[in-house]
Write a structure and sequence with these properties.
The chain is α/β, with parallel strands linked by helices and 478 residues long. The protein has two domains: 260 residues, 3-Layer(aba) Sandwich (Rossmann fold); 188 residues, Glycogen Phosphorylase B (Rossmann fold, 3-Layer(aba) Sandwich). The protein contains 20 helices and 20 strands. Strands 3-4-5-2-1-8-9-13-14 form a nine-stranded mixed beta sheet, with helices on both faces. It is elongated. It catalyses: [(1->4)-alpha-D-glucosyl](n) + ADP-alpha-D-glucose = [(1->4)-alpha-D-glucosyl](n+1) + ADP + H(+). Keywords: Glycogen biosynthesis, Glycosyltransferase, Transferase.
Length: 478
């Protein structure tokens, strides 16, 4: 088996704040089937150290970004995990990146340390194990490829951009603390408008760059999506690869999901029992005449949440209902509560996140709304497809890549799996919801689309094969 070191700030089942953790956690098993053995390097947060323990130390550095750093090796759910135990950096009561007072002041140092440890392990190996590829994720892992390049170490690296909105941008005052050589502070290094960009450092240094969908790779070359790094993406276009994320189709399987009344394509009628249960759980009209839409999302402008108050009156008037699960900006949470107060029998809202409830929502919903302004890949629409919860999505990123919009051409070909709208504004979303109501009223056509959606295969096999092919191309002599 060929060896890859994956370096990331979070991974299921150890720690999760978003979709990054799902991807990092799922890839090792998927890559194993392609001949690549993964070791995962993650920060030693308290929960991680509790899970890993401190029995097998494989690496240590005494003066490690302000204190002792040690790496412990363990196995979690069949995956070899190396936890970077540095209590002065990671032993904190809050979340991985912040606490109740906001982001940690030393996040740049914390994740530079993660990248440093990864680069040293790649350069020197640990106890007879040495990777042939380093796979870094987002800005938190991005300095691993950079350090390797600055040191002249001939180990190929891949940087995956899950969301370019987060760039690890800090003042040059941190140059020494991040152990960055001054001679690389230039436009082809880590300099970014007079500051340091940890993400740019990795983008310029990595052997290859991937994004989590082909469409997102194309979008990042444009200013409205690239957020200042579009020129870097253009310059490195030949090293760019868009590889779609997948989902764990054993966890997300309506036929075996313990959280729902089981259903499948041959037993689609049982989905109706989940719909009735969801209406009851949210206290909505049990005789809802139109489609029941669900929204499982962070409540932020990126997710298009501000568009919903402007279209909900029309949707409710046409017979629709809405269940919301999420948290985010205070104004957005208040807007969702206000909608629920205005339509108590049509709109239900739960502020927060509940993984099990999300399964029930996909099982019971007729449609899932994803009106994002940008979406690198998106997993919500993939869960919706799997559970016959028809996606209503904006035509961006991975949403565009994974949902076949209902048009005269796709309907004539019996190919549509959802509704895709453009541009991302209230008028387009309103029209999409009107189309949803119209399609739902045709029960025969609707059920056919639901079945097509459920048959779509968005597991990890294709994506893992693409990653493996990329890794192979980097380690094989040209």
């Amino acid at each position: 088996m060929k060896r890859v070191l994956s370096v990331a700030s979070e991974a299921v089942p150890l720690v999760k704040t978003g979709g990054l953790a799902d991807v990092v956690g799922a890839l090792p098993a998927a890559l194993a089937g392609q001949g690549w053995h993964t070791r995962l390097l993650v920060p030693g947060y308290p929960a991680v150290m509790t899970r890993i323990g401190r029995r097998d130390m494989v690496w240590a550095e005494e003066d490690f970004f302000g204190g002792l750093g040690e790496v412990y090796l363990g196995t979690v759910d069949g995956v070899e995990v190396m936890a970077l135990d540095a209590p002065h950096l990671f032993d904190r009561a809050g979340g991985p990146y912040s606490d109740a007072h906001g982001d940690y002041w030393d996040n740049a140092e914390r994740f530079a340390a993660l990248g440093w440890a990864a680069a040293v392990i790649a350069r020197d190996g640990v106890e007879g194990w040495k990777p042939e590829i380093v796979h870094a994720h987002d800005w938190q892992g991005a300095l691993a490829p950079a350090y390797l390049r600055y040191w002249g170490v001939d180990v190929p690296s891949v940087l995956t951009i899950h969301n370019i909105a987060f760039q690890g941008r800090v003042s040059t005052a941190k140059m020494g603390a991040l152990r960055l050589p001054h001679e690389w502070f230039h436009p082809d290094g880590y300099e970014f408008w007079g500051d340091i960009s940890m993400l740019k450092a990795g983008m310029m240094a990595a052997s290859a760059i991937t994004t989590v969908s082909p469409r997102y790779a194309e979008e990042l070359m444009r200013g409205e999506f690239g957020l200042g790094l579009d020129g870097v993406i253009q310059a490195r276009a030949t090293a760019m690869h868009g590889i779609l994320n997948g989902i764990d189709q054993t966890v997300w399987d309506p036929a075996t999901d313990p959280a729902v009344v089981p259903f499948s394509v041959p037993r689609l009628a049982a989905k109706g029992r989940n719909r009735a249960a969801l209406l009851a759980e949210f206290g909505l009209d049990p005789d809802l005449p139109g489609p029941l839409a669900v929204l499982v999302s962070r409540l932020t402008p990126q997710k298009g949440i501000d568009l919903l108050p402007r279209v909900i009156d029309d949707f409710v008037r046409l017979g629709g209902g809405l269940c919301v699960l999420g948290s985010g900006d205070g104004w957005a949470e208040q807007e969702m509560r206000a909608i629920a107060e205005r339509y108590p029998d049509r709109v239900g809202v739960r502020i927060g996140y509940d993984e099990v409830l999300s399964h029930r929502m996909f099982a019971g919903g007729d449609a899932v709304l994803v009106p994002s302004r940008f979406e690198p890949c998106g997993l919500t629409q993939l869960y919706g497809l799997r559970y016959g919860c028809v996606p209503v999505v904006s035509a961006v990123g991975g949403l565009f890549d994974t949902v076949i919009g209902a048009t005269p051409a796709t309907e004539a070909a019996n190919a549509a799996t959802g509704i895709v709208f453009h541009p991302v504004d209230a008028l387009a979303l309103q029209q999409a919801l009107r189309k949803l109501v119209s399609l739902y009223q045709d029960s025969k056509g609707w059920n056919a689309m639901v079945r097509r959606a459920m048959k779509a295969d968005w597991g990890w096999d294709r994506s893992a094969a693409a990653y493996a092919a990329l890794f192979d191309s980097l380690v094989q002599p040209s």
